[in-house]
Amino acid sequence: MDTTVAVQPPMIAGYDVVRQLGEGGHGRCYLVRPPSRLGLTDEFAVLKLFNDRVSELAYERGVRELRAVAGAGSGHVVRVFDAVLEASFGYAMEYFPLGSLAAPAAQLTRDDVLTALEHAARAAHALHEAGIAHGGVRPANVLLTQDAGGAVAGRLADPELCRVLTPGVALTGMARASALEFADPELLAGARPTRRTEVWSLGATIHRVLSGAGLHGELPDPQPLVVIRRLLTTRPQVHPGLGPAEAQLVHDCIADGDARLRTAAEVADRVAALRG
């Protein structure tokens, strides 16, 4: 058994490392203090480092994608401060101590949750209008903050850069099983991310957050091939514990053909109506 423990570096690309926040299928996230060269008022930031080494060309592709995301002009998208290339590609973004819809740091009301979901959908729509597919809509990427009045708000984070850094790699080879739960089966069958597939992901996210269950039940995370087989061969099931309006929204997000909601903006409007 491998008992090797990764040593936390004291500094990465000029960022003072406070602690590691988490590790996913693509890389690690660190809580850091940003360097003075950025001129930020934020005491802390999050530095995400990807696992795989990339070329300078891939670094340039990643930077262009991050600039395009920033250029979408949505206040519901997490701000990215910097991109770095050392052994691997990384970028620094805002830090949100309230956590995410997957792991909130405090108790949330139903209205808090719905507001965060609405904001994530509006962020996705802004990206789509700018010609960008986020590619990773799921509860862990809906971060939580508070506005000036203390109300909880949502920010969509972590655009799926692996398809940019390593183009041509299949989704199924890049994602953990826990992330595949939120992927439209069309993506697993080889489609590229689109407005349509991201509406499905929003529906799966809404379902998980409001019901506490996945559309395909609980999936065996260490067995991605088993998960993919289940997702491709079984129909999603909406949890009976959802209210009628909530269940209908999820159905309309994951429906086949023209029955599916067309845009993330329509999803956002429907989520906002649930608060009423």
What are the defining features of this structure?
276 residues, alpha+beta, Phosphorylase Kinase, domain 1, Transferase(Phosphotransferase), domain 1, 2 domains, 6-stranded antiparallel sheet, 9 helices, 36% helix
TL;DR of this structure?
The chain is of the alpha+beta class.
* Extended strand count: 8
Q: What is the helix tally?
A: 9
Integer tally of domains: 2
Strand % is: 15-25%
- Would you list the SSEs in sequence order as H and E? EEEEHEEHEEHHHHHHH
Biggest sheet architecture: 6 strands, antiparallel
Task: Predict the CATH topology of the largest domain.
Answer: Transferase(Phosphotransferase), domain 1
CATH class of the largest domain: Mainly Alpha
| Dominant shape | globular
Could you walk me through the main structural features you see in this protein, from its secondary elements to its overall organization?
About 35% of the residues lie in helices and about 15% in strands. It has a six-stranded antiparallel beta sheet with strand order 1-2-3-4-6-5, with helices on one face. A two-stranded antiparallel sheet has the order 7-8. Helix 2 runs antiparallel to helix 6 (about 195-210) and helix 6 packs antiparallel against helix 8. The chain has about 280 residues and is α+β, with helices and mostly antiparallel strands. The protein folds into two domains: about 10-95, Phosphorylase Kinase, domain 1 (2-Layer Sandwich), CATH 3.30.200; about 110-275, Transferase(Phosphotransferase) domain 1 (Transferase(Phosphotransferase), domain 1, Orthogonal Bundle), CATH 1.10.510. The longest helix has 20 residues, at about 110-130. The protein is built from nine helices and eight strands. It is globular, with a radius of gyration of 18 Å.
